[in-house]
Design goal:
The chain has 161 residues and is mostly helical. Helices cover 48% and strands 7% of the residues. This is Carboxylesterase type B domain-containing protein.
């Protein structure tokens, strides 16, 4: 585990470098009439969480390609939560259906989505798909993140973001 300020700095870096620019970019695409679909990967692997990994970056790779095809480069040794009967096994067909629907339908993740899953709406006004095992849902950007993004937008010229 890291010191508390490490996690605070990591959150600030993530907000300023990834989350806020993604929402700003999606808003620009929407204004230009181009559909954008945002998602936030909140799939947590118990082994990787226990080691102190706080950002599940690329963890969804195992769900997209299947655990037997992505585990060697996307997960720590022993991180097998996407395998059948493990804690994240249920998210694999959900993620695969969204991604293959997007590819098969020329950009619509909903046409071939898995039965019983929520529609993945276009990102309008800060909406995004929260991808989480057994709890995937559409959400709106929180007011606190909106405030943070406004702050980072004001500093964009200075931070070159």
């Amino acid at each position: 585990m890291q010191a508390p300020l490490y996690y605070r700095a990591a959150e600030m870096f993530g907000d300023s470098s990834f989350l806020c620019p993604a929402f700003q970019f999606a808003a620009g695409l929407h204004r230009a009439g181009v559909p954008a679909y945002l998602y936030l990967d909140r799939i947590l692997d118990p082994v990787e969480v226990a080691t102190g990994y706080i950002v599940p970056h690329t963890w969804d790779t195992q769900a997209v390609w299947g655990p037997s095809f992505a585990v060697n480069y996307a997960a720590l040794p022993g991180a097998i939560s996407y395998e059948p009967s493990q804690s994240n096994a249920a998210i694999v067909p959900v993620v695969q259906a969204f991604w293959t629907s997007f590819a098969r339908s020329s950009g619509n993740p909903n046409i071939f989505r898995a039965s019983g899953t929520p529609a993945w709406n276009k990102s309008v006004g800060g909406s995004f798909l929260n991808i989480e095992t057994n709890n995937t849902r559409m959400e709106q950007i929180s007011s606190s993140l909106l405030e943070k993004c406004a702050y980072w937008a004001d500093l964009a010229a200075e931070t070159r973001q």
